[in-house]
Write a sequence for this structure.
């Protein structure tokens, strides 16, 4: 695990991220939840102390152990899968912030669980996420997410624990004298790139690599967002496109762990905005079941690009948080099948309703699954004027 000094620095970065992600300032006696896996209990203690020092009200929630999770999905009957504990809705309705600390003991313990049961529980919990999304749209809530190294993560990534920790320290700039100042500078530079992208009136994006030939339509009233504090680390700039304008083939060369399942070499074929054919070198059955989770699960909810000038991640990390922010030689792009992000709406997200989202092509789903391509690629934009310009090449934005 990280030493005490670096965990203190990490906690300071997370507080910067939580404040940055929120539209308005926190007030004394605001409520912030810290949800953590058991190996991250020391980090949770540090965050609790910092919350109390700031006059905030911490709510601590430990995640289930692998045994508890497996028990639940193996033994729960249908009514138990969809059961919502008393108080969960009230808690979500009163939260002003949330910090999630991932430190998994296992990534494969649910491999023999029926994915349909996992999906049913996820759909049942979606109303809680909707409450938090609506609070965030109104500027009443923000969240951030981080990861602590564990032996399981290192093993699944094919690294020693020491090498894995080095990647985390490097990725989060914890080796800097003042990590928070590093993140402020990254935030400033990313803001300039987002402003450039949002000035560029893009009709269509064309992504080309060895195994990807995909067209994505940003859609009306969209804006590029990212590096807002929601994830640490986070170097991606993204938007939620009009799902109806997705056409072509997308290949994800990065493996993915999801719900205890390992999926590798995913190829998705899109027609009229939906996946019409899905293949995987490993985990194809699980992939297909996820894409049938609900009506929106086979549609694109996010399109993202990561600039290698920001990201120092250069190894597969067996964690979507890190793998979707991979820098390496060629940067990365990723698409997420499933839910869209309302903060990519170029207007007041709090005024969005279901009818408006449908009209704009913002997708709705209980699923949000990031699938990452790290191949050398070119992204060409067809502008509203009819002109074509390269916006991303050689792993970085063309600005």
């Amino acid at each position: 695990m990280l030493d005490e000094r670096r965990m203190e620095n990490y906690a300071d970065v997370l507080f910067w991220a939580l404040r940055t992600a929120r539209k308005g300032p926190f007030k004394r006696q605001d409520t912030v939840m810290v949800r953590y896996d058991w190996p991250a209990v020391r980090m949770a203690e540090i965050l609790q102390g910092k919350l109390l020092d700031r006059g905030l009200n911490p709510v601590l929630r430990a995640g289930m152990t692998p045994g508890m999770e497996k028990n639940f999905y193996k033994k729960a009957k249908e009514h138990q899968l969809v059961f919502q504990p008393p108080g969960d809705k009230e808690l979500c309705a009163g939260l002003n912030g949330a910090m999630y600390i991932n430190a998994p003991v296992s990534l494969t313990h649910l491999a023999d669980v029926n994915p349909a049961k996992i999906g049913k529980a996820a759909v049942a919990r979606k109303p809680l996420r909707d409450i938090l999304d609506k609070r965030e749209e109104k500027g009443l809530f923000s969240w951030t997410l981080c990861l602590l190294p564990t032996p399981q993560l290192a093993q699944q990534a094919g690294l020693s624990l020491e090498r894995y920790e080095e990647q985390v320290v490097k990725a989060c700039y914890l080796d800097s004298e003042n990590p928070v100042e590093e993140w402020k500078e990254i935030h400033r530079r990313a803001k300039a790139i987002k402003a450039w992208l949002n000035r560029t009136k893009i009709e269509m994006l064309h992504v080309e690599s060895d195994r990807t030939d995909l067209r994505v339509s940003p859609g009306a009233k969209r804006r590029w967002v990212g590096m807002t504090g929601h994830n640490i680390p986070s170097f991606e700039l993204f938007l939620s496109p009009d799902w109806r304008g997705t056409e072509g083939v997308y290949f994800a060369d990065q493996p993915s762990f999801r719900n205890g399942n390992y999926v590798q070499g995913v190829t998705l074929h899109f027609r009229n905005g939906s996946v019409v054919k899905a293949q995987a070198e490993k985990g194809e059955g699980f992939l297909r079941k996820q894409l049938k989770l609900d009506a929106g699960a086979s549609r694109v909810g996010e399109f993202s690009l990561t600039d290698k000038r920001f990201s120092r991640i250069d190894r597969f990390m067996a964690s979507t948080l890190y793998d979707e922010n991979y820098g390496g030689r060629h940067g990365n792009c990723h698409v997420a099948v499933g839910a869209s992000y309302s903060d990519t709406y170029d207007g007041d997200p709090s005024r969005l309703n279901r009818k408006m989202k449908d009209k704009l092509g913002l997708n709705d789903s209980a699923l949000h699954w990031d699938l990452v391509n790290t191949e050398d690629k070119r992204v060409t934009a067809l502008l509203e004027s009819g002109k074509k310009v390269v916006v991303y090449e050689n792993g970085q934005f063309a600005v």
In short: The longest strand covers residues 261-271. The mean pLDDT is 95.
